[in-house]
Amino acid sequence: MKRIILFLVLSCLAAAARKPNIVLLFSDDAGYADFGFNGSRHFKTPCLDELVTQGVKLNQFYVSAAVCGPSRAGLLTGMYQQKLGFEENNVPGYMSPNGTTGDDMGLQPGVPTVGNYLQERGYKTAVFGKWHQGNADRFHPLKRGFDEFVGFRGGARSFYAYKEGDDFRPEDRLEWGLGTFKEPEYYLTDVLADEAIKFMERNREHPFFVYVSFNAVHTPIQPDPKDAELFSALEGKRRKLAQLTWSMDRAIGRILDALDAMGLRENTLIVFANDNGGPTDASTSSNWPLSGCKATHLEGGIRVPGIVVWKGKLAAGVEYDKPLSTLDLLPTFINAAGGDACGIEGLDGVDMMPYLTGENQGRPHQTLYWKKENRGTIRDGDWKLLRFPDRPAELYNIEADPSERNNLAAEYPKKVAELYKKLFAWECTLERPKFMLKRLYEEKAMERLDQFRKQYP
Fold first, then answer.
1. Is 160 domain-assigned?
2. Domain presence at residue 161
3. Engineering a disulfide at 58: which of 4, 233, 306, 401 sits with its beta carbon 3.0 to 4.6 angstroms away?
4. pLDDT digits (tens, 9 = 90+) for 238-280
5. What is the CATH number of the domain that holds 426?
């Protein structure tokens, strides 16, 4: 009997000492309101609705950019991606001012990612799904801190296998590892979930980090045929989007069930989030009650759904109302793994856990910033300033007016000036966007000016 008790005690101590697994579930282009747990009356997400009851719902969770690529760069590095000169999507075929193409635009090599940091802590790491951090081999996830990759390098692709004669780009192909391409044999959302589950099963004896980067619910809006009869109360794209969301939720449920079956849920930190606000043109997403959509700095473009679950560490069924950011995921994960994110120079995120547990009652971020080219936005406390290149700045009190309907700029000109200066001071610390490093437009203009002066001295 004493031996049995000793064995149980040692087993419990070993389980307590083991580093937690980390599972990041990430949707693509989902609307803020297109989830049951965020108030949708039409879209059904039962698995995520159940997950949110087991942890903390983040009511003011922000991304660092309003479009996919830069947003993911901020998440992966824990830094404002503009510091790295990454503030545009790596658009295929796009010809930038310095002559580089979309394939050469990506997350700067040599900058550590969350995968690198967790590998150093002894974790097995993997990405399943969308990468969108550069198409060239030097940007590949297997060279950026991840042990395994099944997904695609670009920003969007079909949910079905491409066939000979289909129109697609090289970075759209489904890749298994580095340089091995094989199209999915069934619906891609399910393939990604299955591969994530296999990875967890292979590594159940080790701490692991799995980043499940669904391409759902990004265009093309291609729901699983077996869901074709669902959501009959909706029509057109909206109905298809609901079906697409349903299949993603079902896949998430299978991943969570697999953790339960392996007995790993108790020691797994689980996060669900989305990369930016939902678009309202191609897929008719709903960001209600927020204004704006993907690619804008209004709340509907940068505030996203968020869930954090860690059994035994976080209370269940609670909500957190202060602003947090996907920049905070990297330091949170590092500290959860036994590291010290405070010792990493240049991080802009904070460890969320002291705030979510209530240990720290303060504000995680007094100030948050967004920038794309000559558009800039700052949230300082409850005040938010949006600067535009073609019209006066707008000012909102987000706590009182989350829908941004009451522009207070004319009433508070001193606040506008204060925030404008603070935003500009931050911008002065950033890298010039990589696609603008060589000022060829200015050089050509000077060449033409020189020619003009020679012709007309």
1. yes
2. yes
3. 306
4. 999 999 999 999 999 999 999 999 999 999 999 999 999 999 8
5. 3.30.1120.10
Q: What CATH number is attached to the domain comprising 221?
A: 3.40.720.10
Radius of gyration, CA atoms only, the chain:
23
331 and 387 co-located in one domain: no
Q: Identify which of 457, 451, 43, 29 has the alpha carbon closest to the alpha carbon of residue 247.
A: 43
- pTM assigned to the model: 0.91
**Structural contact between residues 184 and 190, judged by C-beta atoms closer than 8 angstroms:** no
Backbone phi, psi, residue 451, to 5°? -60, -40
Tell me how many helices (H) and strands (E) the chain has: 11, 16
Residues in the chain: 457
Number of structural domains the chain divides into = 2
For the stretch 302-351, pLDDT in tens is 999 999 999 999 999 999 999 999 999 999 999 999 999 999 999 999 99
Q: In this structure, which amino acid lies at residue 245?
A: T
The whole domain housing 217 covers 21-357
The answer for residues whose C-beta is within 8 angstroms of residue 33's C-beta and 6 or more apart is 39, 40, 286, 287, 288, 289, 290
Could you tell me the CA-to-CA distances from 265 to 204, 256, 270, 309 in Å, in that order?
Answer: 11, 8, 9, 10
Cβ(313)–Cβ(270) below 8 Å: no
Report the distance separating Cα 422 and Cα 81, nearest Å: 18
